[in-house]
Amino acid sequence: xxxxxxxxxxxxxxxxxxxxxxxxxxxxxxxxxxxxxxxxxxxxxxxxxxxxxxxxxxxxxxxxxxxxxxxxxxxxxxxxxxxxxxxxxxxxxxxxxxxxxxxxxxxxxxxxxxxxxxxxxxxxxxxxxxxxxxxxxxxxxxxxxxxxxxxxxxxxxxxxxxxxxxxxxxxxxxxxxxxxxxxxxxxxxxxxxxxxxxxxxxxxxxxxxxxxxxxxxxxxxxxxxxxxxxxxxxxxxxxxxxxxxxxxxxx
Length: 251
Known about the structure:
Elements: E1 2-3, E2 32-33, H1 34-40, H2 54-64, E3 76-81, H3 84-103, H4 107-115, H5 120-137, E4 144-151, H6 159-172, E5 176-180, H7 187-194, E6 202-211, H8 225-228, E7 230-231, E8 233-237
Parallel strand pairs: 1-2
Antiparallel strand pairs: 3-4, 4-6, 5-6, 7-8
């Protein structure tokens, strides 16, 4: 579970959550600082094929449905996919969609990275591209996927808070995750494989991969807050600068 900084200090076991575990642990009764979860739940695509315990899957889904829902309509559905046969059908679709992504939307970034490989933004793009390609190459070996759907809502305003809650819950259990919507390129095929009704207004919003990460947890580098935030009107300075992450707090 997540612990807010105002809560009493957690036991010694909480400190272990800052490192990737060799295997997921369920029902440990551990806790995590809420800011640690928020700051370190980055995309973790390189994972082990180890199965995720049902108890952990339960926590992931139960956390998801506690998220805010517009009008409390809860017009969402969540599908866990761990069947090898289903993954075998979805893997080629994912790889084809990712190839389309590199050749269309991300083509300018890929070309820029090839021309200026030493530029910081180029290095970050190549790092992300290699990570996404690893997911594609190992799709069938991932232990668990979560497909998220919303009904009659094309904005995603209700479903994505739930998806993020699922990812935070996974982080608290030592499970890495990564969200992708790239299969939108072949949505009809995805819906067919998953048996989603065609006449009930269900929209595919995204897919989250889960697994025990092979790497280490850490704070993802980002463009600073003051470069992407405004106050009261577009383009107006937010009024402060945050040159470095505020977590972990300085001792």
